[in-house]
Design a protein that fits this description.
Number of domains: 1
Radius of gyration: 19 Å
């Protein structure tokens, strides 16, 4: 029988994303991750070491997935906000995992290398757009990015109709434009 280590690791991560998203760190169970991934607990511990290290791997994976799926465009930050909002609606797990990290680990995941690098790239894109006059420089790049990211996480709780989603996207664009408007 041929082993597919990369495939097994991916199945474990996918199952762990769902588990941590639903139950947080304290409530997550490695036996459920094993069952959902078609693996066993020993294999999970072999690949990831501990439940905490598995959560770290999940956190890194969702950051990379989101950055790859929704790259920042400093020249069109309102559309970046809308694309992120759409991504959050379609894939709520990263937001949930992030909230569990904040609640249970005082945002330890936000200090992970993948997160720090993603934030550095985004802040640099905002700063570059500010230097070129595309975006207002009235708010420092990091704080402006934080505000734009907060917009992208707003209005996600209740399921909304397509018509309501379209109206909300328009509202997000207007709000983001107002935030970044030069002069």
């Amino acid at each position: 029988m041929v082993r597919d280590a990369a495939g097994t690791r991916r199945r474990i991560l996918d199952a762990a994303i769902a588990e941590f998203s639903a139950y947080g760190i304290a409530g997550a169970r490695i036996d459920r991750v094993a069952e959902a991934s078609g693996s066993n607990k020993a294999m999970i511990y072999k690949y990831f070491g501990s439940k905490s290290q598995l959560f770290d791997a999940v956190f890194d994976a969702i950051v990379v997935q989101t950055v790859d799926a929704v790259p920042i465009d400093g020249d069109d930050l309102p559309e970046y906000v809308v694309r992120l909002w759409d991504r959050h609606r379609a894939h709520p797990e990263p937001q949930r995992v992030g909230l569990w990290d904040e609640l249970e680990r005082s945002s330890e995941g936000m200090r992970a290398e993948a997160v720090v690098e993603a934030a550095r790239i985004k802040v640099a894109a905002v700063g570059d757009a500010q230097r070129r006059g595309v975006v207002s420089a009235a708010i420092a790049p990091q704080e402006l990015l934080d505000l734009l990211l907060a917009l992208s996480r707003s209005g996600l709780a209740p399921p909304v109709s397509d018509e309501e989603a379209d109206r909300y996207r328009d509202a997000l664009r207007v709000a983001a434009r107002k935030l970044i408007q030069p002069g």
